[in-house]
Amino acid sequence: MLTRRSLIFTTAAAVTLPIAGLALRPARAGTASVFNTDGIAINGFDPVAYFTERTHVSGNETVIQDWMGAVWRFSSEENRDLFAADPAAYAPQYGGYCAYAMANGYIAKTDPDAWTIHSGKLYLNYDLRVRELWSQDIEGFVARADKNWPGILNG
């Protein structure tokens, strides 16, 4: 027999059910369109550097650009200017939320080490282990994530 208590427990378990060992959560109405911490996008890393340096580089807190409701940091004024001229070319897909989670209908934070450039676009993942899973079928995950984005932000 399903009691109110067991229903609440089952619902809570489903929300935090680990996918690939992660505690992922569905987005709620009002979820920011860009993954940020205290208003700083993608953990303060320079999105342009992923393309130009082929690694993650910390942004300078004085070289910034406001875009999509968050502050983006850059390692140089040149990178900031490249971003300002064409943010969509450099911003990570899915607002910088984990691309693997997005493909599976959830949102999750990202690790600056766990990134991929595929078909000229930047994708971030929760961690390096999740990036391995993501790498097994990038095309399939992109197709699924594209269907979920950006509607998932409104839960």
Question: Quick gist of this model?
Answer:
The protein is of the alpha+beta class. Helices cover about 35% and strands about 20% of the residues.
Structure, described:
By secondary structure, the chain is an alpha+beta fold. It has seven helices and eight strands. The strands form four sheets. It has a two-stranded antiparallel ribbon with strand order 1-2. A two-stranded antiparallel sheet has the order 3-4. Strand 7 and strand 8 form a beta hairpin.
Structure characteristics:
alpha+beta, two-stranded antiparallel sheet, 7 helices, globular, disordered N terminus
The radius of gyration is 17 Å
Low-confidence stretches: 1-24
Query: Strand order within the widest sheet?
Result: 1-2
Give the terminus-to-terminus CA distance.
Answer: 29 Å
What would the principal axes of the Cα set say about the shape? globular
The overall strand count is 8
The profile of the biggest β sheet is: 2 strands, antiparallel
**What portion of residues is helical?**
25-40%
Number of helices: 7
SS content category:
alpha+beta
Could you spell the SSE succession in H and E letters? HEEEEHEEHHHEEHH
Overall average pLDDT: 86
* Proportion in β-strands: 15-25%
